[in-house]
Amino acid sequence: MIQSLHSADVQTTLKTLLNAAAAGDVKAQLDLALRFRDGSGVLKDDVHAMSWAHRAADAGSAEAMDFVGAAYLRGAVVKRNPALAFAYFKAAADESAQAAFNLGQCYYGAQGTAQDCEKALEWWKKAAERGHGRAAASAAMAYHSGEGVKQDALKARRLAERAAELNNPAGLVLLGEMHFQAGEIEAAKENWTRASKLHPTGATGHPSQPSDISSAQQAADLLKLMDYRRRKSEPGKFAFVPLPHIHQGYNNCGSTACAIFARFQGSEIGGWDFKRLCPSPLGTGTDWGHLLEASKKIGQQWALVTFTPDDRGFAHATAMLKSELDAGRPVVVDFKYVGPQYPGGSAGHTLNVCGYIADENLYILCNPAVATPGIQLITSSDLDKFWRSDHYGKLSKGVLSRPAFVIDNR
User: Where are the TPR repeats (predicted)?
Assistant: First the structure.
């Protein structure tokens, strides 16, 4: 339905577009799908968006196939069907860089197909060659951490540079981190400054932001944290615990966050290998009870602690956080995001807390869902809002709390 608030010229243009689409114009059909999806000049309508996208896909549009595949992969508009999503991406990948990226995501995260990290990297590199910056950054991070493929610093650097050439904020974050670790501070600052200007940023962001916006904010956070990361912690005032970041695969935040935690304690395990220690299949969520059992299988001792989701519980929880961080130990936490943009109305995410700045009431996260080094800032109020979960596993018994894994020193 065309919005009545729009001008007559806009309405005329949309009517022309609708007529062209109805007559079989594939480009017009895809344009309408995008407009209905985004609510651009028309009332947002996911049913109409999928209807026009299906028509364009059936006519052979690679971009429309990717559109439909993405809907089936996410499951927010139609019933989630990874196998069907994979089929659409595969049909479109030779013509669409975005579909090639998504096909790589499916191979990497076992979505609709058996996991094949080498094939994922092949498709990401093909997409990168065709100008897809996020694909270049994703491949770079896999090679950088050795997650799913053999670690290769040279390939990681080249792909990070390609992502930076394409002005991808995640690639610029990673390339800046490579410079930072090499002691090339000005080069790091230059890359992070570039990334921070690609999208609007604030004093801090929050982990539920879309990826490119999150990467731009992350770059701004890294600029703020440059001096903190190079100085010793001051218990009660400031703490930062460096962690060996791994960029997660599709729907593998729990195992990846735990692998980061395990690597900090001396293990060499990756996120996918940690997941294989759990009974749930690759590409599906992981029960925290299974994560806890997996820690024992690699010879580490963790403890699950929980706090109530009220103000009193938050005071106790953050006191625990600061105590652990002051002792040089990170903490794994589980977040819950609520909103209509999530299938089922909510989503969970597991990540690490690796520092705090007391004067500014800020905490430092190491998030497997964002670009390496995974570091981002979060305000105390946002930590209070997001650090809560009632679905982290059978251990939760459906009760909302603030769950955390800590190193068990008993």
Answer: 169-202
pLDDT of residue 11: 54
pLDDT digits (tens, 9 = 90+) for 144-153: 999 999 999 9
Distance (Å, rounded) from C-alpha 334 to C-alpha 389? Answer: 6
The second-level CATH assignment, the architecture, of 232-407 is Alpha-Beta Complex (3.90)
Cβ-Cβ contacts under 8 Å for 181 (sequence gap 6 or more): none
CA distance 401 to 130: 46
Domain ranges of the chain: 8-129, 232-407
Contact at 8 Å (CB) between 314 and 320? no
State in words which class domain 8-129 has: mainly alpha
Task: Locate 313 and state its tokens.
Answer: 């519980």
- pLDDT tens, 115-133? 999 999 999 999 999 999 9
Q: pTM for this one?
A: 0.93
Extended strands (E) in 144-276: 238-240
